[in-house]
Amino acid sequence: MELAPVTLFKGKERAEARPAISHFLLSRAIAPSTFHIFISYSDRFAEIRRITPISKLVERPQIDDTESRKMIWQALFPTAPMPKVREHALEECCGLLDKFLPENVPIDKIIQRVKHG
Amino acid sequence: MPYTIARKGERIYIDSNVFVYCFYSKHKPNLYAKAKDFLSKVENGKFVGIVSSATIMEIIKSLRELLVKYGRVKSTQDVETLVQQCISPLFSIPPDRMKFLEGRPPDLIPMPEAKEMYYYNVSNEALRTMQKYPGKIGTDMDTGEPEHKGLHAVDTFHVVLAKKLQCDKLATFAWEFKETAAEITPLILIDNNAFW
Fold first, then answer.
1. What does the mean pLDDT of chain A come to?
2. What are phi and psi of A50, to 5 degrees?
3. Residue of A nearest to B90 (CA)
4. What is the average per-residue pLDDT within B115-128?
5. Over 60: is that where the pLDDT of B114 sits?
6. Would you call A25 and B27 a contact, using CB atoms and an 8 Å cutoff?
7. What is the pLDDT of residue A43?
8. How far does the CA of residue A80 sit from the closest CA of chain B (Å)?
9. Could you tell me if B188 and B169 are in contact, meaning their C-beta atoms sit under 8 angstroms apart?
10. pLDDT tens digits, residue range B71-109?
11. Which residues contact A41 (CB under 8 A, 6 or more apart)?
């Protein structure tokens, strides 16, 4: 595992460093590298740990959903064949309800009711 | 506000509201765009999306409510056909990019008699999680009356499932998941401090 240098800022540097850090983090989000990032200089940024360490991504056991995928599909649609895996399938369901629902249906309220009663 | 950054390769549990917003663009187009963008990144392999049967149940109920209350449909058969049309393409997304899981992680086998009990192990931890995060008293925006703002039962299951499945984050539009950030980091797709 490669480690990026720990970046430390002290005193006056903190305030000056903030915009730079924001850009740094944004660039990481857009073009993530293999580096394990750890930045520490202020409580304000303590929760920067929300970046997942690369070690966790590498060492974690993989999930095999072969069986559960079949089980769930059969529970949902027992008579329908399992859909074939293909690229760009998502596009088929994006906005699918647009032609069946009128304009501006408050789906957030429906979601809220379904989730929370 | 802390930043939340989802990196390539992360395993992300997906809340039902992400899917429901993706199915309908004419209410809040910005949320539709966010949901579509996020799910596209899953489909393209940037993240591994985790979908539990609890999530699918919420999707189905949301679709049924929407279509019956507002939809131009005439029968329950029509509703169910549309539900299938919405859900079916998700199962065509390659399994290494989106995974469908029933609640019990394979390494947690309970006593033989309860082996088949759904969420057997998860429910105990969900109960503990529910007690650990008491929420707070807020105000109902419609009535102005006080209301409890905090974890709901199904959301608690989502939190525990995401944690047990070793997900890195939980993708959602619900700010309520902020409270349980110590259990599973919420990736709130409308949060300006979230980058994905």
1. 69
2. -65, -5
3. A90
4. 67
5. no
6. no
7. 46
8. 10
9. no
10. 888 889 999 999 999 999 999 999 999 999 875 544 444
11. A7, A8, A9, A10, A14, A17
Q: What is the pTM of this model?
A: 0.79
Q: Give residue for tokens 């049924």.
A: B64
Whether complex ipTM tops 0.90: no
> Quick one: tokens of A77?
């649609």
> Is the Cβ of A103 closer than 8 Å to some Cβ of chain B?
yes
Question: How many contacts (CB atoms, under 8 Å) link A and B?
Answer: 199
Instruction: Count each helix (H run) and each strand (E run) in chain B, helices first.
Output: 6, 9
Distance between CA atoms of residues B58 and B131, nearest Å: 23
Residues of A in contact with B26 (CB under 8 A): 98, 101-105
Q: Is B12 helix (H, G, I), strand (E, B) or coil?
A: strand
Quote the pLDDT of residue A12. Answer: 45
Give the Cα separation of A57 and B11 in Å (integer): 8
B109: tokens are 């086998």
Q: How is residue A42 written in tokens? A: 């202020």
Tokens of B163: 């944690």
Q: Tell me the pLDDT band of B1, cut-offs 50, 70 and 90.
A: low
Greatest C-alpha distance within chain B: 50
Determine whether the interchain pair B155/A115 forms a contact, defined as Cβ–Cβ distance below 8 Å. Answer: yes
Q: Give residue A64's pLDDT band: very low, low, confident or very high (50, 70, 90).
A: confident
Mean pLDDT of B56-68: 92
Nearest to B72 among A26, A56, A100 (CB): A100
Looking up tokens 């963008």 gives B37
Q: Long-range contacts: A85-89, Cβ < 8 Å, 24+?
A: A85/B92, A85/B93, A85/B94, A85/B95, A86/B92, A87/B94, A88/B43, A89/B43, A89/B89, A89/B90, A89/B92, A89/B93
